[in-house]
Amino acid sequence: MDATLNKIYKYIFLVVSVLFTYFLFTTTASAQSPKAENKPVLYKLSGKIISSENNEPLEMANITISTSLWATSDTKGNFSIPQIKAGTYEYEVSYLGFEKQKGKITVQGNVDNFIIKLKPLGLGLKEVVVTAQEQKMGSASKIEQTAIQHIQPKSVVDLLQLLPGNVTQNPDINSVAQANIREISSDANNALGTAIIMDGAPVSNDANMQAFSTATSGANSSQKMNSMNDQTTSGRGTDLRSISPDNIESVEVIRGIPSAEYGNLTSGVVVIKTKSGATPLEVKAKVDPSSKMFYAGKGFNLKNKGGAINIAADYSQSYSDIRKKYTGYDRITGNLGYSNVFMSQSHPLSLNLKLSYFRNLYSEKQDPQLLSEERIKNNNEGWRFNAEGNWRLNQSWISNLSYSFMAQYSHQSDFSKMLSGSSVMPYSSSYVSGEFVVPFLPSGYYSEYTLDGKPIDIFGQLKANKIFQFSSETYTNIKLGIEWRTNGNKGNGLTYKDGLPPSTGSGQATRPRSFKSIPMMNNLSIFLEDKAVLRMKSTLLTLQAGVRTSTLFVDENQAKRGNITTIEPRINIDYQILNRRNNKIFNDLSIVGGFGISSKAPTMLYLYPNPTYFDDICFNSYSSDPAKQLAVMNTLAIENTANANLKPATSKKFEIGLAGKIKK
Q1: What pLDDT is stored for residue 40 in this prediction?
Q2: pTM to 2 decimals?
């Protein structure tokens, strides 16, 4: 009890420290800003974003300035950012299929005709970045379009080779593809603790229950070590092969301390943004001795401010050994997106809708070394719907309101047909404890069983932020958010033919179990974070501090424990001591550091494990005459094997370092 109280006091102290730091920065910044009896004068930055190739306007291009204010261009390429104080700002403009542009703009009054020309991406560019671009805050790396095209990935995992410390290897989708952050080799716990965020919502694997029996086989989908087990990820991280890498616009990997808006993790975050808006027709074919991949995608604008539609599809086939095609993997994905911006010149409201489909094909596998009737089959297909956007309100109490909603349904099926039994054995099918007369199983038979899972994942999030701007380089951005997650499984679970069990013999055994009987998981999270930037003469201090609290609601009777609540304080600091203002060598030299606590809630597989049954033979007399044979077995049924002491996985990260840049 004392240890728990000490933890609570420590968390409270950290939260108070965060809030105190925020008020200190706000007060300091206010003191530095010039005081006046009247409200400060605010200006408007407006202009046009066009293509440098033909001067055509670019619709739905995004522009962001250094204080986190943003705008989106309309059908004529026009954009407008109101309520800006005088000063010099850094800006960044991005548009899919064009080179990202960064620069500076000085605002001393209303800027009415700021023209920005973007260069189309292509082989003709003088300089192409083909590595991950490092970001100091949170030890993050950003992988852009040019780097993605350069590496020719077969799955998202192949992109992670561009991160510091990762090993380069040939792209491959034969085995399960999972993200491992700051790990050389694959690690199930690290992959489970890596949050995958796609288009603003998590790609969850928490409702995956494809395990034969947690009591007898752990998280494996088969009692035998065969290729069937190689394709399952129950109780582990997400299999990233269901995401087409050719349909990705950018990937951000946070290896250090993530923002408080990211939860249910321990290792880090992989943020994936898929393509949207108008894009040129793109057709790809990649062929090598062990794989074939085909992709086609196109985005086009609709007339009369109707927004844009983006369509993409791919097919992939891969074998690690062409002599053993039963170990291969086939995939087909389809993506349909719609995007639009309403009220672009006043209070722009962005809308991005995504519908995606994935499925593995030719999933039935037959090993030449198996018997002629033995089969292994893995099926996995699913649908995912996303809706996300941002609303620039520019009110006295709120700057932006962001929203994200996701619903995903999958159908997972693992089928096994194997020869079982070596001698005549008695067999018990009782679900209760006791002593029973039981039948005999034949000496050899083909047992068939199916693991039928239908995971359902629902996610919703609302974020509001308020920007207080004291000058062009001194501001604070407060963010408050709430999110809800629901995970469940409506599959039939483990099923097999009555009287022909997958395993025989005396000892620990299993029984059919429906996943529908397992309660759904619900998780409520609230987070508060502030990012403050303070210019102190020629140096710049950036502080990002926040706290996140989450509660996982569980069934107390089946989980043998109450709800799980976590508190996760996080802080990142970046102090730029050298820049072009105070030296001629370094463009940037900064001291960076951070501390954070992150927690990953148990998945359904760990919260609600299988019941287990111990079947012992009491009397066994077999005869070819059924009237003369008799078998009696004693069954001990343990209906609830849940761990009452189960806790979320928790990681504490502390890091400090130097980040610098000389020229480029």
Answers
A1: 65
A2: 0.89
